[in-house]
Design goal:
Elements: E1 7-11, H1 16-27, E2 31-36, H2 39-49, E3 53-57, H3 63-80, E4 84-89, H4 109-134, E5 147-152, H5 165-184, E6 190-197, H6 203-209, H7 214-221, H8 233-245, E7 253-256
Parallel strand pairs: 1-2, 1-4, 2-3, 4-5, 5-6, 6-7
Keywords: NADP, Oxidoreductase
Organism: Neohortaea acidophila
Pfam families: adh_short
Length: about 270
């Protein structure tokens, strides 16, 4: 799938890994629809990039909000004549809580739903609404490709610290979706790949470690193998671009973590 003159939808595109992806796709000639709850940040990046970019305020936990965004995007593609080539659902919430507290109280379902509704339900909702607009694309020669989904998982799906059950469950589900969707969508010429980033220098990544003590932070940093630093947004975005452009990448979850592994405790 070539990026030039194709429309790509990036949820969570106003910050972090989503924003880095928006910039990468736009730089390579793509049309980009940014979905995010942060209207101020989203409008700012849309104004900065200018042509070939639109911003839509959207709540990934609410079907009506996603529907409104999808309708606007499809109208936009009719105006530009640039078909939807891919979806990158990068919106995510990392807030966690133990299922049972130290005083033996169960976590509220509201806290669990807050994470699952954005990280999992919202991804499925966005994909199910967008796919009918991709399956009818004119297939590209010579293989008949019509589009690609690049899902965003996390290395937490392969191991996580206590208190992150809802987040880990949501990202483990993303991993599982990559293979089944690649098979399900193969007759339409649509691929599905997932990327599982490790520790990246993003607002979400910084927030997740902000409360660590100095000793725990040293243990956290000791998990870095090479390079011995957090990842950068442009490195994630480069991987997204490769997933879009390399037709043989399909049905797989790619760990993008510099060989880091999450310890069971910090």
């Amino acid at each position: 799938m070539h990026i030039h003159d194709r429309t790509f939808i990036v949820s969570g595109g106003a910050s972090g890994l989503g924003l880095a992806t928006v910039r990468e796709l736009h730089t390579h000639g793509g049309y980009v629809a940014i979905l995010d709850l942060n209207a101020e940040a989203g409008m700012k990046i849309a104004r900065e990039l200018g042509e070939r970019t639109i911003f839509l305020e959207a709540d990934m936990a609410k079907t009506d909000s996603i529907t409104s965004a999808v309708n606007t995007i499809t109208d936009w593609t009719k105006t530009t004549g640039k078909p939807i080539g891919g979806v990158i659902p990068a919106a995510g919430i990392g807030i966690g809580a133990p299922l049972v507290s130290k005083d033996n109280r169960p976590v509220s379902m509201e806290k669990l739903d807050f994470v699952l509704n954005t990280n999992l339900r919202g991804v499925l909702d966005l994909l199910r609404q967008i796919l009918p607009h991709m399956t009818t694309n004119v297939p590209l020669e010579p293989d008949g490709e019509r589009g690609v989904l690049v899902l965003v998982s996390s290395i937490a799906a392969f191991g996580g610290v206590p208190g992150q059950a809802s987040y880990v469950a949501s990202k483990g589900a993303i991993n599982s979706m990559a293979l089944v969707l690649s098979t399900e969508l193969a007759p339409f010429g649509i691929r599905c790949v997932a990327i599982a980033p490790g520790h990246f220098d993003t607002p979400l990544g910084q927030k997740s470690t902000a409360q660590l003590s100095d000793s725990r932070m040293r243990k956290f940093e000791a998990t870095f193998v090479f390079p011995r630093r957090r990842g950068r947004g442009e490195e994630f975005a480069s991987c997204v671009r490769h997933c879009i452009e390399n037709l043989m990448l399909n049905g797989e979850t790619i760990r993008l973590d510099g060989a880091a592994r999450i310890p069971s405790r910090l």
